[in-house]
Amino acid sequence: MAQRKQGVSEELDVLSSTLVGDALDLLADGEDVNVLLVVQDAKGAIASYEFADDGPEATLNAARDRVLDLAKAHGDVEASLADPVRYALVYEGMIADETDAYQDALMLEFGEKGWNAYSAFSLYEGKGAGEGFMWTDPAPAGEIEPLL
Asked: Are 130 and 100 in contact (CB under 8 A)?
């Protein structure tokens, strides 16, 4: 198997940063962030999906399966998406801090074909507080199994 590239391409950085920003805006407005997925092809076309009809683990697995299915199907004709080359997904979660107290977090998973895949998180507080909503810059959470 070919060696995967380390790091994150500029295209994947923009795709994942935009998704995180959109999710943080939803949280600031008091909206729930279900599992949100964006997938991009080599020409820059983006397809967006939301998963909310089941429990947290099932919706997260459905989003991951969608990436795998899109790769097998060589895209999504209805969404004008060709073969997927990169993806990002976000969802609400919790992170234990150094005192083992749990804090609200926006979780991110992202990857690109031929590259390593990663996860990250942003802590937040003040959901629904609008201008009073606060969040941290994304922090790395480790390498994950690539979907592409």
From this structure: no
